[in-house]
């Protein structure tokens, strides 16, 4: 399937849509003014409705026949007997809402083919991943596809995970404080929005799981990594299975699907990822910070590589003199009951976790846009203690 969109055709259509939207906006302004005038006149008519005609005296003291005879007359200045009933006010609520949306979003119609190609590849990747995980063939008919998967156990588990993730985002202090709120999302925000996603349970009916690791279930990140690189660069897809450890695959997922696929060399091995980062930095692509450099203060968007517990990687949200605050995949959950498999979660790490003495330990700053509006934040001691507590958290959780 060709997911690419012609640059010329896209921009031609986008510009035409923008012209139409501008015209509609101008027409709406004119219509709105006219409707306001009509409503004002109707209000005036309504104010007269049901009122007596106004009596005014004929000029009094008019003399008839003699100075002693006075005779006065009255006449009606207005006669108004039209009965106005019902709601005659012309409402523009619906049209106003429609055109307000056009006005607010008109700049979004200035689309570029690269934006649509990214959207297309992201959606197609999502559908392909679901298709593989839930063992339902996708033949290009999106309606038929979702009709086929909606009753599978895997889809029901997906819905359950989504509901739990939504609740977690409402309560997670690190998510609430480090998630950008000004609309200028970066890849860290993309990763933060994955909060709460986790493995499918091992052996779930309707979910593709090759059983390579009998103590693990499949993950969407492992499945995505294989599908994406089988279609783009097969050399990166080898050695990956859908139930493999996915901390690294999820970092690649977040960068690629937020439009930053060229920022790093894809990796599934923490050791390989760190070595790739060092090599890339030596060639002027991003910046490497060795864990030996104790003066370096980790910053939002840094990718960390730790070998304190066999190898683990994730993304830095912020740091202070004692801790780094992170978003990681294939790690422990805040919840003890029922989540014995890897999840996407925010963590608090003591700096010694990164500074483990391995020559490949450190931080890599990719050459991407980073929104630094929510970086200097204070985290409560309750959150720090909870997310450091060994009873609640493992170093990483396969």
TrEMBL record:
Q: Which InterPro entries match?
A: Papain-like_cys_pep_sf (IPR038765)
Q: What is this protein called?
A: CHAP domain-containing protein
